[in-house]
């Protein structure tokens, strides 16, 4: 299964903000959209990603104010990305080795979607269900 197949199931909707937004504004969007990370895109260019983990470690634990801090102060700028043709195994390896939970999907350097660890796990479960069903029908024939 490829990233593109996951996106065709879950959709390609992407939420983004600007690096000059406050962290509080970013968290508000994340809460409204029920997402754990948001992309920072400026002039169609992916500049970074901000996750709940970034907020917890770089604002809360350092006793900073999310209403005064800007996204550019805490966002991750070294963003790990994938392409639509990448497979699940590659995504799992990236998420594990790079310790990330979200992978923006780029095509021709433009963000066309984002997948999360949850999306990858759901896809793997579906693949396993299909395999089990196939094996069951093979055995019972």
TrEMBL record:
SUPFAM superfamilies: CBS-domain pair (SSF54631). It comes from the Bacteria. Residues 8-66, 75-131 form the CBS domain. The keyword Lipid metabolism does not apply. InterPro entries: CBS_dom, CBS_dom_sf, CBSX3_CBS_dom, Diverse_CBS-Domain. Keywords: CBS domain. Pfam families: CBS. This is CBS domain protein.
